[in-house]
Amino acid sequence: MIQKVVFTDIDGTLIDLISGKYGESDKLIYTLRENNVPIVLCSAKTFAEQNKIRDDLGLMDPFIVENGGAIIIPKNYFDFQFDIEQNRIKEEQGYIIIELGESTREIRTKLAEIKKKLKIEFKGVADVSIEELSRLATMPIDYAKRMSEREYGETILQIKKSDIPTFTTSIEKMGIKVIHGGRFFDVTMGTDKGKAVSILINLFRRKYRNQIKFFGIGDSANDASMLKLMDVPMVVQKPDSSWSELEIKNVIRLKGIGPEGWKSAFDKIMEMN
Predict the structure, then answer these.
(1) For residues 90 and 70, is the Cβ–Cβ distance under 8 A?
(2) What's the pLDDT score for residue 8?
(3) Among 9, 11, 16, 186, which one carries the catalytic annotation?
(4) Model's pTM, two decimal places?
C-alpha cells in the first residue's frame, strides 16, 4: 500500500490569511491523522508559532520553519542516523534541528548597515515592542510574542513603497533573499523551502522504503520550490479568487480560498491511491 505524506503552507492555505481561523481544516487534519498520513507544516512562521498550531491540531510530525531556515524533527521520529551532508545539526527540547539558514543576528546586523548606508527608514520585528507588533500585525499579544521569536531571518513590517526597489536591490547584493508574503516580507540568508523539503522527502523515503506519494498544498509563488518536488502539487485560491501563476506543469488549481481550498485538497488526497 502506498504511504501518503502531506506538505502544507499555513497562512492563506491551512488557515485564513486575515482571520487566522482554521475553517474546517482542523477537522480534516484529524481525519488524516486517523489515517496515519504525516502532515508537514512548511511556512515562514517561527518555531514558536508552528508549535502552537501543531498543539492545536495534535500534530507530531516534522515541520519546516522560517521559509526553510530549519527542519524540526521530533526525536526518534526516524529510526536511523542522519547522513545529511552538512554539520549544522543539534538536539534541543526533544527535537533534532537541522539548520539551513543564517542567524537572525547576522541578518539584522546587515539590515542596520543598509539603513545607515542608504538612509532608508524601515521597521523590522526587532525595531518594535511586542505591543506595537501586535498592533501592526493585528494579532493578540501572545501571537505577536511567538512571531517575534525569529532565529533565521527578519520580517519587515513598515517601509515606504517607493523605497522597496532600492532596498531589495541593495540587500540582494549582500547575499540576502527577500521573500514577499501576504502582508509583510521576510529577509533571509541561506534559507530555501525547496532544500528543506528535499531533505525531508529523502528521510521519508527511507522510513517508508520508497512506497510513498507526496502531496503539497500552497497558495503563492513562495511555495513553488516546495510544490515542484511533490507528486501531487496543489494550489488554493488567493483572497481575490485568483491563483498564483506557478511554472509547475502538473499543478492542480483548487477551488476555494484558504481553508476552503484546503478542503478540496483533502478530498484529492483521500481519493488518490
Answers:
(1) no
(2) 97
(3) 9
(4) 0.91
